[in-house]
C-alpha cells in the first residue's frame, strides 16, 4: 500500500486530502442495510462466531508472526504462498490453489444464487531478499519489516475463513479468499490484474491492507512509473570535449520536470525518485537513467500530466543536442508501473455496508479516503471495491522500523466477518447487500 495518510490521524484528516470525504457529506445508510445487520446480530450462529473471534487475539498474533517471518520480497512470494495455501486448506478450503501468477485462491461457495465477493490481502512486502524479518518485541511493540503491511491483513483473512468454516453459516453468495502477489512497488499489481483477467464474474472486492480500524479506502490513486535512459556517445572529458552528455541531458530533464505544475484537484503529484549513470568523473557520460513516479486521483489528469513529463524528456534531449550542435543524444522511455486510478462511489452498497458494520464491532469510521492498493484495479474496472485497515496500532510501513501492537486485534477480524456476511447474505436469514453484476 502506498498510503496517502497515516492511520492515527483523527477526523482532521478528512479535511486535508482532496479525495477524503467529510463525514457530513456522507449519504445516509439505507434502512435495508441496517436491517440486515440487525437480523445477523440477532442470530445465535453469528453471535457465536463473533464471540469466538473475541477470544482469538493471541492466536491471531502468533499466526501474524509466523507469516511475517517467511520472507516475501517482490517477485519472490512463493515460500509464503505455499505456507498460506497450506493454511487456507487447513482452514476449510481443501480446493484452494495457487494460480499462474502466484496468487493463493480459495473459494468458499455459497448457495450459487448470490454475488461473488473477493476478500484479499497481499503476500508480498517491499523489503528485498535478505532482509531480516524476525519479529522483536520492545515496550509492547513488535518490530519487523512487513509486520502489519501486510502480515496483519493476511492473518485477519485466515482467521475469518477458519472461524466461518467452524460455523454452520451458509452464505448466499460466494466468498473468494485471495492472497495476492505483486501489490508492492514494481510488482505493479500483477496479482490482482491476473485475478480479474482470470475470474470474470467478481461482483465486489475487499482488500485488507494497513493498520488502524476505521479507515475505508474508496478512491484509488493511480500511478504511472517510468525509467528514462539517456544515451550519448560518451568520451574523454578533455580530449572529447564538445560532445553532448547523457548526464547533462538528464539534468536538463530533471529541472524541466521539477518546474511542472500539476493540477491540485484531482490531486496529482510527481517525483524523479531515482537517478544513476556516468562511468567516471573525467568521462563524458554515455548513459544515465532516472526513475519517475507520477500519481493522480483521476485517470484523465494522470494521463494529461504524464504527457507533459514525457514532453519534458524529449525537450531536454533536443536542448542538449542543440547546445553542442549535435544529434547524438537520445532517450529511451520505459513504462515500469501502471496502477490505474478509480473510485467506488460513496453511495455504493459496499460502502454503506462497511460503514454500518464498524459500530457493530465497537469501532467507528474515521476516514474515507484515497490510497494506492490492490483495490485500484477493480475500482478502475467499475467493480465495487474498498480497502480496509485492520485493528491494532502500528507505524513505519515500508521502513525497517515498521512496528505493530496487537491491541484489540480481534476486532478487525470481527469487522471483516460481519461485512462479508452482510454483503454475500446469510442463507435463510438475510439477502445479499452486494448486487450481482450483469453477466459480462
Ligand atoms: Zn500493503
Give start-end ranges of low-pLDDT stretches: 1-18
Whole-number count of domains: 2
CATH topology term of the largest domain: Aminopeptidase
Radius of gyration: 24 Å
Structural class: alpha+beta
Main sheet makeup: 10 strands, mixed
Give the distinct bound molecules: zinc ion
According to CATH, the homologous superfamily of the largest domain is Zn peptidases
CATH architecture descriptor of the largest domain: 3-Layer(aba) Sandwich
Average of pLDDT: 94
Count of individual helical segments: 12
Beta content comes to 15-25%
The end-to-end span amounts to 29 Å
Tally of extended strands? 20
Give your account of this protein's structure.
- With 440 residues, the protein is of the alpha+beta class.
- Helix content is 33%, strand content 24%.
- The strands form 4 sheets. Strands 1, 2, 3, 4, 7, 8, 9, 16, 17 and 18 form a 10-stranded mixed beta sheet that branches. A 4-stranded antiparallel beta sheet has the order 5-6-20-19, with no helix packed on it. Strands 12-14-10-15 form a 4-stranded antiparallel beta sheet, with helices on one face.
- The longest helix is centred in the last third of the chain and has 25 residues, at 299-323.
- It is elongated.
- Residues 1-18 have low confidence and may be disordered.
- The structure holds zinc ion.
- The site of zinc ion (ZN) has 6 residues, from loops.
Amino acid at each position: 500500500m502506498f498510503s496517502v495518510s497515516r492511520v492515527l490521524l483523527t477526523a482532521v484528516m478528512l479535511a486535508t486530502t482532496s479525495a477524503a470525504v467529510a463525514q457530513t457529506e456522507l449519504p445516509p445508510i439505507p434502512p435495508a442495510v441496517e436491517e440486515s445487520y440487525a437480523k445477523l446480530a440477532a442470530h445465535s450462529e453469528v453471535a457465536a462466531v463473533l464471540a469466538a473471534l473475541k477470544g482469538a487475539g493471541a492466536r491471531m498474533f502468533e499466526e501474524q508472526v509466523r507469516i511475517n517471518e517467511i520472507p516475501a520480497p517482490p517477485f519472490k512470494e512463493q515460500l509464503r504462498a505455499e505456507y498460506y495455501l497450506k493454511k487456507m486448506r487447513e482452514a476449510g478450503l481443501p480446493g484452494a490453489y495457487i494460480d499462474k501468477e502466484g496468487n493463493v485462491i480459495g473459494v468458499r461457495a455459497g448457495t450459487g444464487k448470490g454475488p461473488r465477493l473477493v476478500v484479499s490481502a497481499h503476500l508480498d512486502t517491499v523489503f528485498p531478499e535478505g532482509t531480516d524479518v524476525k519479529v522483536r518485541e520492545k515496550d509492547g511493540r513488535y518490530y519487523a519489516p512487513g509486520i502489519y503491511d501486510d502480515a496483519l491483513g493476511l492473518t485477519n483473512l485466515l482467521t475469518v475463513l477458519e472461524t466461518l468454516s467452524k460455523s454452520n453459516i451458509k452464505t448466499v453468495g460466494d466468498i473468494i479468499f485471495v492472497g495476492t502477489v505483486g501489490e508492492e512497488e514494481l510488482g505493479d499489481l500483477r496479482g490482482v490484474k491476473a485475478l480479474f483477467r482470470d475470474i470474470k464474474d467478481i461482483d465486489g472486492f475487499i482488500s485488507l491492507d494497513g493498520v488502524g480500524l476505521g479507515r475505508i479506502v474508496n478512491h484509488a490513486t493511480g500511478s504511472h512509473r517510468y525509467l528514462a535512459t539517456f544515451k550519448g556517445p560518451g568520451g574523454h572529458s578533455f580530449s572529447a570535449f564538445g560532445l553532448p552528455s547523457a548526464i547533462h541531458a538528464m539534468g536538463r530533464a530533471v529541472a524541466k520536470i521539477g518546474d511542472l505544475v500539476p493540477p491540485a484537484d484531482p490531486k496529482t503529484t510527481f517525483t524523479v525518485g531515482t537517478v544513476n549513470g556516468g562511468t567516471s568523473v573525467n568521462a563524458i557520460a554515455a548513459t544515465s537513467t532516472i526513475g519517475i513516479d507520477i500519481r493522480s486521483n483521476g485517470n484523465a489528469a494522470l494521463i494529461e500530466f504524464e504527457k507533459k513529463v514525457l514532453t519534458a524528456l524529449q525537450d531536454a534531449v533536443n536542448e542538449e543536442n542543440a547546445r553542442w550542435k549535435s544529434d547524438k543524444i537520445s532517450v529511451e522511455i520505459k513504462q515500469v508501473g501502471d496502477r490505474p486510478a478509480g473510485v467506488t462511489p460513496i453511495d455504493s452498497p459496499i460502502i454503506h455496508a462497511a460503514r454500518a458494520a464498524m459500530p457493530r464491532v465497537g469501532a467507528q469510521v474515521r476516514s474515507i479516503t484515497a490510497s494506492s492498493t490492490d483495490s485500484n484495479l477493480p475500482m478502475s474496472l467499475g467493480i465495487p471495491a474498498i480497502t480496509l485497515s485492520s485493528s491494532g496500532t502500528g507505524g513505519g510501513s515500508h521502513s525497517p522500523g515498521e512496528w505493530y501492537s496487537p491491541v484489540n486485534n480481534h476486532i478487525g477480524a470481527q469487522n471483516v466477518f460481519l461485512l462479508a456476511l452482510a454483503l454475500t447474505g446469510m442463507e435463510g436469514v438475510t439477502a445479499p447487500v452486494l448486487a450481482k453484476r450483469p453477466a459480462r
